[in-house]
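Example S7 (C-alpha cells).
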C-alpha cells in the first residue's frame, strides 16, 4: 500500500474507534533496531489488518534492510523521525522504538499531527515527560498504548483468570523476581545503550518498569507507599581480577572470565537456531549491526563499546535492586531485580488467604490449603527473552493494538495512557526512595 495514493491525510484513522476500518492500517516504524524490526515482522504476518509503509532510522543499513523486507517506497524512507514533522501525516500509526531519551519529543510531536501511537517502554525517562506525553495524547484525541508486553502474555491472562476465580482466595502479598541474566546484563547495562543513567534512564525504569506495571495490574489496586534499595556492586574497577585488561580481545583471562565479550559474541555466531532466535545470536546482531561473521565480531570487539572489560566500562546503573510496595488495600509486594542469575524467566509467588500461586512466566502452580493438592497449568508459547518474543507478549500486544484500531475494539488495549502513567509514577517514586533512603507516599 502506498499511503500517498491510497490514503489521504484526512482519511487516516482518528481516535474514534467506534466502528471497524474497511482497509489495512498503515504503520510508520520509527527506529529500525531490534524492537522496531521485531514489531515490523509481526505486522507483516497480518497484511489484511496492517502494513508497514514508512520507516525512519539514522543507520543506513538498518533502514535499508527493513525497507527492503517490507517493500517500503524510497520516498517513505527517512533518516530521522523528525523528518516526518515536515510532511503531512503519512500513516495511521507511529510505532515509536527510538532511544528512550527521544520518546517524549517523538510522541508529543507526532500526537500533535494526529498519529495513533504505539510506544516502546519506558514511556519517557522522567515523570514530567511522561505527563507531557499523556497530555498530548488526551489533547489530540489519539489512541496511545505503551509496550508493556507482560500484561498481554497468555501466562498473565491465565494467571489473572485463576485469581478472579478465587484459586488462592484473596491476595495478601506477592514476591516477584526479575533474573536479568549475567551476560544479558553485561551486554545491555554494562557495555550497551542502557549502561548510564545520563544517556538513558535508571535501571528500574529501562528494564523493570514492566515488572512494576505487571505487579500493579495483578493486584488491581493503587500503590500507596514505596521504598527501594540498590547499588552498583560488582561491575566496578576494584572488582576486576588481577591481570584483566581494558578490552577482552587483549585480555589473558578472556577464555575464563564469566563476562568475556569474546566468548559471548562468538557463541552468538555459533548459535545454531534460526536467525531470529537465540539470545546470544540476537545480541551479536546488535554488536555487529546485523553482520554475523567472525570478522565483524572481531572488528566490533576491537573498536566498539561491546568489547570493553565489564570492570573498566563507564557504566553507573545498579546491578541489583529491591523495591517494596504497599497497596491501598494493604497488600504488600517485594520486587527484586538482579544481574547475577542465568538468563531465565521471571519468578513469582502470590500468597493468598486460601492458597499459594507460583509462576515462572510459563507454568502456574496452585497450592490449595484445604486439600493440600497442587494443580499445574502450562501456558507454553515463546521463550522469555526479547529474541524469543517475550513469552508471546510481543505478538499479543501488537495484535491487541491492531485489532482495537482496525476492529473498533478499544477495550483490547490494557496498557493505555492512564495505567502506564500510574505505574511509571511508582517507578519514579521508587528511584527517589532509593536515592534518599526514605519511604515515598503516592
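Recovered sequence:
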Amino acid at each position: 500500500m502506498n499511503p500517498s495514493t491510497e490514503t489521504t491525510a484526512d482519511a487516516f484513522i482518528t481516535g474514534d474507534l467506534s466502528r471497524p476500518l474497511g482497509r489495512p492500517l498503515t504503520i510508520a516504524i520509527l527506529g529500525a533496531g531490534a524492537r522496531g524490526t521485531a514489531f515490523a515482522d509481526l505486522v507483516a504476518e497480518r497484511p489484511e489488518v496492517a502494513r508497514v509503509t514508512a520507516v525512519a532510522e539514522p543507520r543506513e543499513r538498518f533502514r535499508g534492510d527493513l525497507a527492503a523486507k517490507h517493500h517500503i517506497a524510497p520516498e517513505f524512507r527517512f533518516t530521522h523521525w523528525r523528518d516526518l514533522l515536515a510532511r503531512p501525516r503519512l500513516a495511521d500509526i507511529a510505532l515509536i522504538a527510538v532511544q528512550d531519551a527521544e520518546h517524549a519529543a517523538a510522541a508529543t510531536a507526532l500526537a500533535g499531527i494526529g498519529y495513533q501511537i504505539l510506544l516502546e517502554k519506558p514511556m519517557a525517562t522522567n515523570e514530567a515527560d511522561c505527563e507531557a506525553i499523556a497530555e498530548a495524547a488526551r489533547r489530540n484525541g489519539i489512541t496511545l498504548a505503551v509496550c508493556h508486553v507482560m500484561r498481554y502474555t497468555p501466562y498473565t491472562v491465565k494467571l489473572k483468570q485463576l485469581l478472579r476465580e478465587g484459586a488462592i482466595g484473596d491476595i495478601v502479598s506477592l514476591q516477584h523476581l526479575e533474573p536479568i541474566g549475567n551476560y544479558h546484563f553485561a551486554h545491555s547495562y554494562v557495555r550497551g545503550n542502557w549502561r548510564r543513567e545520563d544517556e538513558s534512564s535508571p535501571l528500574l525504569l529501562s528494564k523493570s518498569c514492566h515488572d512494576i506495571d505487571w505487579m500493579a495490574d495483578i493486584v488491581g489496586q493503587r500503590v500507596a507507599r514505596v521504598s527501594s534499595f540498590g547499588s552498583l556492586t560488582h561491575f566496578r574497577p576494584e572488582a576486576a581480577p588481577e591481570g584483566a585488561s581494558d578490552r577482552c580481545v587483549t585480555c589473558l583471562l578472556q577464555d575464563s572470565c564469566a563476562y568475556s565479550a569474546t566468548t559471548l559474541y562468538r557463541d552468538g555466531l555459533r548459535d545454531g537456531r534460526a536467525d531470529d532466535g537465540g539470545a546470544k545470536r540476537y545480541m551479536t546482531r546488535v554488536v555487529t549491526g546485523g553482520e554475523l561473521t567472525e570478522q565483524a565480531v572481531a572488528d566490533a570487539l576491537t573498536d566498539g563499546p561491546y568489547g570493553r572489560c565489564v570492570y573498566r566500562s563507564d557504566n553507573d546503573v545498579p546491578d541489583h535492586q529491591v523495591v517494596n510496595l504497599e497497596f491501598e488495600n494493604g497488600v504488600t509486594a517485594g520486587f527484586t531485580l538482579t544481574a547475577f542469575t542465568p538468563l531465565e524467566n521471571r519468578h513469582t509467588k502470590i500468597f493468598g488467604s486460601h492458597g499459594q500461586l507460583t509462576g515462572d512466566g510459563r507454568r502456574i502452580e496452585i497450592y490449595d490449603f484445604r486439600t493440600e493438592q497442587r494443580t499445574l497449568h502450562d501456558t507454553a508459547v515463546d521463550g522469555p527473552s526479547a529474541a524469543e518474543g517475550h513469552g508471546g507478549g510481543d505478538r499479543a500486544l501488537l495484535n491487541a493494538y491492531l485489532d482495537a484500531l482496525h476492529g473498533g475494539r478499544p477495550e483490547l488495549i490494557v496498557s493505555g495512557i492512564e495505567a502506564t502513567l500510574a505505574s511509571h509514577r511508582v517507578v519514579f517514586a521508587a528511584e527517589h526512595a532509593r536515592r534518599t533512603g526514605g519511604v515515598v507516599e503516592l
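Notes on this example. The longest strand covers residues 171-179.
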